[in-house]
Structure formats: C-alpha cells, structure tokens
Design a protein that fits this description.
alpha/beta, 10 helices, Rossmann fold, Arc Repressor Mutant, subunit A
C-alpha cells in the first residue's frame, strides 16, 4: 500500500495503542506502520520507517513525549508530530507546540477527533480544539507577567518532567538514570521546583507531586 501515509505511534498503554492502530488502519489513506513505548525505540523506528506522521503521548514508559517532539524538530523537521495525552490541555498544549508539535489532542476525545487531527496536521495545519485555541491566543495577546502565572506554569519543561516522575514514585537515582543526568543535577531541579511551588521540605514536594500526577492540581492537598 505505497500510497498510504505511514503513522508511527509512540504510546506505552497497549490497549489504547491497539485501539488507535485499528482506528487508523480503517482509513483508506493511513496505515499504522509502527509503534513504540518510549523515546529511544521510537528514534530507531523513525530512522527505519521514515513515517509521514508521529503520534506521541506525553507520558511514556521511561521518558517524556516532549523530549521526542524536540528531537524530531531538530533532526526530522519534515515529520510532523501530533501529541496525544490525558493531561490538562491548558498546561501541556502550549508547551507541546513550543517544542515543535503540530497539534495536541486529549485522549478523552481521541477516538472521535484523531482522524480529523491527522488530516489537519498532514495538510500542514495545526490542530487544536477551539477551547485550547482561545486559551493560547489569549496568552499570546496578553503581556507576559510571571506573577500572573500559576506555579506549575513557572516550571520549565525539564522541571515539570522531573516533578511528574517524582509523582510517579521514581527516586532521584531512578530519574537521573532515565534522563541521563547526574543525581546532583536532579537535586538541583528538586530545589528549583520546591522554590517555585513554595514547598519547604522534601516530603511536601513528594506529596504535592503525587497529588499532581493523580489530579493535575497542586493546591488541593494543602487544604
């Protein structure tokens, strides 16, 4: 089927990946040509398959989909990436676009909208739902003011990645190994996160990170 557009799925949940594969393969002009659970094997598949589009989740088995977006933008500018995630659109959509993604879609709406999103992205357009478009345009039109940002907005992509991994139960050593960084560097990130989120102790950081990973919120646990 040489005329079909090849789509690489980077998703670590096998049931969801299977459903998405079946959905894509029902289309006359698409084929799910490969799948990976993480960034490292995905990079190899990109080189081998030369996909026309990549659909990547934010949270992967050992790493972060934003890292993959940045890699593709740097090394394969001609391959668009559509980010698919269960995470808050307002928190991650703008980060994904800034990293180089061409669209962002929530998993809750994926089965209804992913085919439309794929068509948009392959046509050179950016895909976002109307609610997120308005949010991002509002952010762009307003004068940036760090005091108006939420604490999580103040985290860099790497700090947010470390924060999420803390919430998933990874130790500093685990995080360092997965991100190919030193434990000292992870310690520096932890201190920056504590400062930006106004957390005093390591236990507060862990409790806050766990709550955030479960709910997408950072304030409720303090009440």
């Amino acid at each position: 089927m040489p005329n079909k557009k090849k789509i690489l799925l980077v998703e670590d949940h096998p049931i969801f990946r299977l459903g998405l594969t079946e959905l894509i393969n029902q289309e006359e002009d698409f084929t799910a040509s490969g799948s990976s659970k993480d960034v490292e094997p995905a990079i190899k598949e990109i080189e081998d398959l030369k996909p026309d589009l990549i659909i990547a989740d934010i949270t992967l088995k050992r790493s972060d989909g934003i890292d993959l977006v940045k890699y593709v933008k740097k090394h394969h500018k001609n391959i668009p990436v559509l980010v698919l995630s269960m995470h808050d659109e307002y928190l991650y959509a703008q980060r994904a676009l800034q990293a180089g993604a061409r669209g962002y879609i929530m998993k809750q709406e994926a089965m209804e909208s992913v085919v439309t999103a794929i068509h948009h992205v392959l046509e050179g357009k950016i895909y976002l739902n109307e609610k997120v478009k308005e949010h991002i345009l509002s952010n762009i039109s307003n004068t940036p003011d760090v005091r108006k940002k939420t604490p999580v907005d103040r985290l860099t992509d790497r700090e947010l990645q470390v924060f999420k991994m803390i919430g998933r139960g990874f130790s500093s050593r685990d995080i360092a190994e997965r991100l190919f960084l030193s434990i000292k560097t992870i310690g520096t990130y932890r201190e920056r996160i504590k400062d930006k989120l106004s957390l005093k102790h390591a236990n507060e950081l862990v409790r806050c990170a766990v709550h955030f990973e479960r709910t997408g919120q950072i304030s409720t646990w303090k009440n």
